[in-house]
Amino acid sequence: MGRRIFGIASALTLAGLLAACGGTGAGGDGAGGSEEVLRVGTEGTYAPFTFHDESTNELTGYDVEVVNAVADKLGRKVEYSENAWDSLFAGLEAKRYDVVANQVSVTEERKGKYAFSEPYTVSTGVIATRADDDSVSGLADLQGKRAAQSATSNWAQVAKDAGAEVEAVEGLTQAVTLLKQGRVDLTLNDNLTILEYLKSTGDDSIKIAAETDESTEQAFAFRKEDAELAAEFDEALAELRADGTLAKISEKWFGEDVSGPVAG
C-alpha cells in the first residue's frame, strides 16, 4: 500500500518497543504516572514525521509530537513500537499496538478495513520552480517544460499528462540540484516534502510556484472495533486545534500550518 503520494520509502526495519517516559519522543505524565498506556505503531525512519534525532537518538517528528499531545489530553502514557511500513497494519491487526501514527493517507479502501481519526495533516500537490521563474502558475503551464521526477512516482505521470518532458531522478535532492542548475524547469511533489526542504535548508533559490488540484488527508488508524478510541482522538485533536497546538507543531516542522481546516 502506498501511504503517501510523494514516494518517500523506508528501507529499514527498526523492531522494538520504546517506553516513552519524557522528552521529545515521549508522551506526557498525565495524572501522575498510573494512567493507561497508549501503544503506538510507527516507522521511526520517516523524517520529518517519525524518526530518531541524530544527536539524542530520541524518537521525534511531526507525527510523534501530535500523538504525544493527544496522549497528554487523554491522560495516557505512550509506548512506541517501531516497524517497517509493510508491517504496521499487521501489527495493528495483531493487537500489538492500538493506533498507527505514520502519515496514513485516508482512502476508501482503508476506511473499509480500519477506523480513522479526523485528519491531522492535509497535503496538496505543488509545483516548485526557481525563485526567479514566473512562467508557471498551474499545470496548464507545464506544456513543453522539463520536470525532474522520480520515474515511478505518481508525480511523474502528472507531469507527463500535463505535457512536460520528464527527467528521471532518484529523489528530491537530485531534482532540486537539476532545478538549481537550470537543467530542468520544475519538479512536482507533495507540499509537505517541499515545505520541509525549504524550512530545513533555508534555500531561497527555489519556490512553490503553484498548487495542483490533488490533495490527501492523513489520519491516525485504528482497528474497526476501536472506534471509541478514534472518537477520543477526535475530541483531543479538536481541542489541540482550537488552542493552537496543532498549528504550532505544524509550523515548527514545515514553516506553516498543514494540519488542515477546522472541521465544521
Automatic annotation (TrEMBL):
One of its GO terms (cellular component) is cell envelope. This is Cystine transport system substrate-binding protein. The keyword Signal applies. SMART domains: PBPb. SUPFAM superfamilies: Periplasmic binding protein-like II (SSF53850). Belongs to the bacterial solute-binding protein 3 family. PROSITE patterns: PROKAR_LIPOPROTEIN (PS51257), SBP_BACTERIAL_3 (PS01039). It comes from the Bacteria. Keywords: Signal. It comes from Kineococcus xinjiangensis. Residues 1-26 form the signal peptide. It is found in: Cell envelope. Pfam families: SBP_bac_3. Residues 37-257 form the Solute-binding protein family 3/N-terminal domain. The keyword Signal applies.
